[in-house]
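Appendix B. Chain record.
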Amino acid sequence: MIRILARAVLSLLANAVALVVAALLLSKVSLSVGGFVIAVVVFTVTAIVVEPLLRQTAVRNAPAILGSTALIATLISLIVTVIVTDGLRISGSLTWVLATVIVWVIAMVARLFLPLLVFKQILADDRSPNARA
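Structure tokens predicted for this chain:
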């Protein structure tokens, strides 16, 4: 249960960072302060649901696109988030493509490095000589 909770927190943080970076880099991507949290939650939940479905479909029907399922899931998650919430706005075809790639890359990198930052104290406490056995 703790691992699932940790993964959920990690995904939410990674996606939040990725959406903020996309909004900072692309002038046609905007995040509203009031709807930011809802946008991140909708984006994360959509990605968690869509990616395994895409992966399963690709394994059965189109193995050639198996490696790009995360990128496609990111695009679908962005589309759903823009439609469902007021927290994220994207305009322009090129911006959609760039936002998809930026969010995908930044979220992937954040998922690699955030555990080192977020759980650093927990890991340090577990390794300390005074930690309980």
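Further analysis of this model is presented in Appendix C.
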